[in-house]
Amino acid sequence: MDISTVPVDQLSYNQAIEELQQIVAEMQDANCDVDNLTAYTRRAAALITECRRRLTLADDELQQILATLNPEQSAE
Amino acid sequence: MDTEQITLQEYCKRLSQAVATAEGVQNVWVVAELSDVRTNASGHCYMELIQKNEDGSDLAKIRAVIWRSAYARLSAKFTAETGQTFSTGLKVCVMLTASLHPVYGLSVVIADIDASFTLGDVIRRRKEIIDRLRSEGILDINKSIQFADVPQRVAVISSATAAGYGDFVNQLYRNAYRLRFDVKLFPAMMQGESTAPTVIEALNRVEAEDAWDCVVIIRGGGATSDLLAFDNYDLAAKVAQFPVPVIVGIGHERDVTVLDDIAAYRVKTPTAAAELLIGFGKAMLDRIDSLASSVVNMALGVISAYREQLAHYQSTLPLLPVAAVRDAENRLVRLSSSVASVKTAIEARRTKIATLISSLTLSSAHVLSRRKSEIDSVAALLDALSPEATLRRGYSITRINGRAVTSIDDVAQGAKVTTIVADGVISSTVDSINANK
């Protein structure tokens, strides 16, 4: 399997998950060699990071949103 | 004027009497629709009971009251049995009693309410809507829609001032997993006659923006107010055919509206709607975590396999030259012993070849001389048998038409023949033919 070079932020969430599953399947293959392993792991890490980033909020984003929920507190 | 004159009070007394004793007027179960229901400051509940024609015009209308002393009990019982508050728009079956007060006029009092009638009517109305949606083939459309991606972009249809919206947003944004959600409120009326049209209008705006993963229709928790407004065919049809999953959280514990049967998801409260969405996101996070640990485990597994392989080579490497030298020595020994045996074999072959050569020389000389004398005698025989030799001894060959003449039958008188002799050819004509005696 050729490793995709499409930037992860251009994938839809489901596309990213699908690619991630393919990579896991590929890594389970006994023929996975060390050279591929590095590339697979790097790509998988990028996909995982992107998926997590989309699902979850960064600290500052979270603070901003919570501030809008409690306007009287944020005004202090 | 001889006719009797009575006081107004007396007249009212007679009227009152007539009403009180008239046949079929007291304690009668009457079916009607509620309108303009309101409770005044002293706790009495006033309303209009109406009956409408099929075209919607009023056939009958009368003011009625439930006295405070009965209202608390009757309304609680009604709500418990129907899941509805006793409110405008409901069809009811009520026990009426009439009386006429000299000052306050006619009053119609509700003494009891048959909740099962209203419940039946509400259920029948819902069933009609459901049946119609089913016959139109749109009943299950929204329920069968999958989320296109993770549902994070959430359009909320609610009343901006409702506590339910605040509960929802709070719950959603304060989720323990820090799941990201984008929420936008599309305000609508959540009770009263404007409910269906404003919710439909809000749904149209959500649809037009085409930027939302799902729609959440919620209304404030707390007081149970009438849900009849949601049992509306147009609204139900809109929700049923909505292009993204709809989550409804407008019912309360024991009641459902038509929308609960049609929307992709139904929950009891706004908080539960938020929990549902958080649950979807959490499932996605779990899936990513599990894939991530798969990747890590696999990578570590492959690496440790290669490490073991490497370690194996490292430990065997120092021994390898010794083993190689020993192997080479063994091979040399084996080779030299086989070289010796080859030498012996070669000697034997060489002797045999020498013998063959000498015998070959002798026998070939012998064969050659014998062949030569054979050839000489054959040549002599050939010479003796050749036609030239015969011709030289005085024989000749006579031919006719190229064929040798061997019988008198071969020629006729006058035939031209040629005679071949040793040194030439004689042409002649046959004069006579005589057979041997």
Total number of domains of chain A: 1
Give the SSE order of chain A as H and E letters. Answer: HHHH
Mean pLDDT figure of chain B = 87
**Please, what is the average pLDDT of chain A?**
80
Output the number of helix runs of chain A.
4
CATH-assigned fold name of the domain at 138-284 in chain B: Rossmann fold
Order of helices and strands of chain B: HEEEHEEHHEHEHEHEHEHHHEEEE
Shape of chain B: elongated
Tally of strands of chain A: 0
Radius of gyration of chain A: 18 Å
Rg of chain B from C-alpha positions? Answer: 65 Å
Q: Structural class of the secondary structure composition of chain B?
A: alpha/beta
General description of the model:
The complex is a heterodimer of chains A (76) and B (437). Chain A has helices spanning 13-28, 34-55, 59-69, 71-75. With 76 residues, chain A is mainly alpha-helical. Chain A has one domain (8-75). In chain B, α3 (115-135) crosses α7 (233-240), α5 (163-173) packs parallel to α9 and α6 runs parallel beside α7. In chain B, 49% of the residues lie in helices and 21% in strands. The mean pLDDT of chain B is 87. Among the domains of chain B are: 8-113, Nucleic acid-binding proteins (OB fold (Dihydrolipoamide Acetyltransferase, E2P)); 138-284, Rossmann fold; 389-429, no CATH class. Chain B has a five-stranded mixed β-barrel. Chain B is built from eleven helices and 14 strands. The A-B interface holds A 12-14, 17, 20-21, 23-24, 27-28, 32, 34, 37, 40-41, 44-45, 48, 51-52, 54-57, 61-62, 65-66, 69 and B 149-150, 152, 169-170, 173-174, 177-180, 281, 284-285, 287-288, 291-292, 294-295, 298-299, 302-303, 306.
List keywords for this structure.
heterodimer; A: 76 residues; mainly alpha; 4 helices; disordered C terminus; B: 437 residues; Rossmann fold; 5-stranded mixed barrel; 14 strands; 21% strand; elongated
Question: Would you spell out the secondary-structure blueprint of this structure?
Answer:
The complex is a heterodimer of chains A (76) and B (437).
Chain A (H helix, E strand, L loop, with lengths): L12 H16 L5 H22 L3 H11 L1 H5 L1
Helix pairs in contact in A: 1-2
Chain B lengths: L7 H14 L6 E12 L5 E8 L5 E9 L1 H15 L8 E11 L3 E9 L1 H21 L5 H4 L8 E6 L4 H11 L8 E6 L7 H15 L4 E5 L14 H8 L5 E4 L8 H5 L2 E2 L3 H47 L3 H66 L1 H6 L4 E4 L2 E2 L11 E6 L2 E6 L8
Parallel strand pairs in B: 3-5, 6-7, 6-8, 8-9, 9-10
Antiparallel strand pairs in B: 1-2, 1-4, 2-3, 4-5, 11-12, 11-13, 13-14
Helix pairs in contact in B: 2-3, 3-7, 5-9, 6-7
